[in-house]
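Bug #77: duplicate submission created two jobs. Keeping one. Sequence:
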Amino acid sequence: AVPFVESMEPSAAALAAGSAVDIDFSKLEMGALLTVPWRSRPVWILRRTAAQLKVLQDSTLIAKLKDPDSKQPQQFGAPVVNWHRSLRTDVLVAIGICTHLGCIPTYRPQIAPPDLGPSWQGGFFCPCHGSRYDLSCRVLDGSPAPLNIPIPPYYYINDTKVSVGQLKDGSEQNWQPLIW
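Kept job's structure:
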């Protein structure tokens, strides 16, 4: 029975594909976005500027969000259930997948570009069906996406390096959001 049961265990390749990934963002400029694969999905690292952080706290933006307080289970836990949805205000770590139908939104930091309109304050725009997210990956009302973009489990190895896919104590390795 032992060989049979062992044959149902994930292969080494499958385990490696789901393991944590270390990301060094030391060369990432303020306002820039870095994309790295994890579990065959894009992970975003965004170095937010002071101006971007100010926009995230604007009451007019907050009034336009579906889930401004991140009450839906789209993040790994209490440490990132805050207005900036991150462990540090200046660095966002998120899974770059739209919660509508799984497309990959584009980073649109410009304020009021002609194609997004005068109320656009910067964020992520999904070109597939028009879902809009702010710079904390919170979904705006009127978007087809039902939930905020997922925030995976992660921790800081040092000031400019994160490990994405588990917490420092090794927990949350099997974490999954409600919608990828």
